[in-house]
Amino acid sequence: MKALLLSAVVAAAFLSAGAVHASADLAKSAGCAKCHDMDKTKKGAPGFKETAAQYKGKADAEATILKKINDTKGDHPEMKAKPEEVQSVVKWILSL
User: Fold this and answer.
1) H-helix or E-strand containing 14?
2) How many angstroms separate the Cα of 58 from the Cα of each of 8, 46, 52, 61, 64?
3) What is the percent of the chain with per-residue pLDDT over 70, rounded to a whole number?
């Protein structure tokens, strides 16, 4: 039983590591990396880790960020990515 549980934990760790990498790649392919960097402000846009820290512990973080991204009258440029891709990137950012 312990071996099965340990195997499940190890498998989950490998899968989540792959998901994090896939999300970083998705952020790049979605165009987010044109204005955002992982650790620093770029072109006036906050880094992904800065955004994660700003919204840490806020229940409405995902909805708030998505609203800012999708607001066509706001400061954020229009996204070429599919809505589900943008949502995936936002979830990844909040996991940092």
Assistant:
1) helix 2-29
2) 30, 18, 10, 5, 10
3) 77
Percent of the chain with pLDDT over 90: 60
Taking a C-beta distance cutoff of 8 angstroms, is the pair 65, 90 a contact? yes
pLDDT, mean over the chain: 82
Which one-letter amino acid corresponds to residue 68? Answer: K
Burial label for 8, CB within 10 Å (0-12, 13-18, 19+), is exposed
- Cα(77)–Cα(75) distance, integer angstroms: 6
What is the sign, positive or negative, of the torsion defined by CA atoms of 25, 82, 76, 69? negative
Residue 18 tokens read as: 């792959």
Structure tokens belonging to residue 91: 């979830």
